[in-house]
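Hi R.,

Here's the input for the glutamine complex you asked about:
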Amino acid sequence: MGHNTKFIFVTGGVVSSLGKGLASASIGALMESRGLSVTIQKLDPYINVDPGTMNPFQHGEVFVTDDGSETDLDLGHYERFTNANLGKNNNFTTGKIYNSVITKERKGEYLGGTVQVIPHITDEIKNSIMLLAGTVDIALIEIGGTIGDIESLPFLEAIRQLRADLGRENVVYIHLTLVPYIPTAGELKTKPTQHSVKELRSIGIQPDILLCRTDRYLSQDLKKKIGLFCNVSSEAVITAKDVECIYEVPLVYQQEGLDEIISKLLHIWTRSPRLDTWLNVVDKFKNPEKSVNIGIVGKYVDLTESYKSLNEALTHGGFPHSCKVNLIYIDSTTIDESNCAEKLKDADGILVPGGFGSRGIEGKIHAAKYARENKVPYFGICLGMHIAVIEFARNIAGLKGANSFEFDKKTEYPVINLMHEWYDEHKKRIETRDINSDYGGTMRLGAYPCVLEDDSFAKESYNSSDISERHRHRYEFNNDFKDTLVENGLFISGTSPKGDLVEIVELKDHPWFLGCQFHPEFKSKPMKPHPLFTEFIRASIKNSNK
Ligand code: GLN
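And here is the predicted structure with glutamine in place:
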């Protein structure tokens, strides 16, 4: 508390997919580099209460925070780019806003009044934004969707009102637009930007800064022209040039003077930005000394958005080794026993990521077997750990037909099963899961502590015995089979502090074989690559040199 929080609102125009999330994350990084504390919030116009139940095919990855919120993948960018501690107050959807307004209405909290979009929904939105007030120097709020959408109007009305509520020197509006280059005319075109700003002004918001996505630098003349038509000073027209590496974005913004103009508009005096860590990351990205191929055996293979954090974490894992990590996506539904070796032959390391549903499971089990037998480094994450356990149970422990209860309700050996009862440290039951449980929010979600065994790949990686990692799953290692599997050589290298939940399994006699129940990819940052990824990449590089 005690911060006089200034608010930056980021909207987007012209088309979707301009990278508003990355832009917001980069602005956050830039303001942090000037010594300010930052948080970022995403307001999403869709009606789902959270993205937990949404198909990653449509919406991309579900990002999980320490407090167990299932959030939009943009929060992953925010955490990778800044030191902000994000949680349930950093992502609101139309559904979540309406849910709380309707709950209040049912409780009679509106005292018989007619409940309306303005002011009740807009007030609820403003309250959600103001949860961040006092916690940091700068709160960035990204509004999902594109100007002109019907869905985002209440959010825009709420942020319009906030400037009057909070005062001009405490609020900045940034609008991200597109300035396309038209080859036949040989020119950059400003009309889409003009129209988008016109639309925004018709709602009552005059942007202070324009971030113009484009493939080349805007000339001073063009900035003047855009400034004139959009009623923005030309120094506040910023070239948001396409970059080769996403971690270059804060550097480009800084060169364009974005942090200067924000500081000026918000009346903040800070030190000049320190961006050496960012320069270092970009240098690592652009000048690798070697490369390694990682085979990702998964289901949503043709949509890399659903593995956003994973892809980033793998890239980060290469940085300490000055190594470029090539990702080879292998669709597990196409893998069978006869073609497995052929499909995986180019992979120096094999990774089976998280996932849901039974499609492609047998292909993943073949991949794990291949990795185990051929001593190829294997990294199984969540579902990938389940796969490793099933493969071991079937092929080493002789439990024929062993499976996860998720995929086979009749298996004799449910080595992965639902944890039916769930207790907190006071032995109070906090959750019961069975096949009839609701889908939304019934998983083990968020950060849980884990204790590591000596002489394990895990402990060597973390260099510590006590870790905390984030979870998102319904099924667990089944302790009924623990003794059998351990007797046959499975190494349980990480458990919950009480020892009742198996969190990491490994194989000895293997260069690197590890499955973890949690999702380490959510905590990897470009300047702080996650130790499990760093070590998996190290082992894969070693394997590639064989
Ligand atoms: N489908 C598995 C479960 O619900 C694994 C989930 C995951 O990989 N995130 O337990």
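One thing worth noting: Confidence is low (pLDDT under 50) at residues 422-432.

Cheers,
M.
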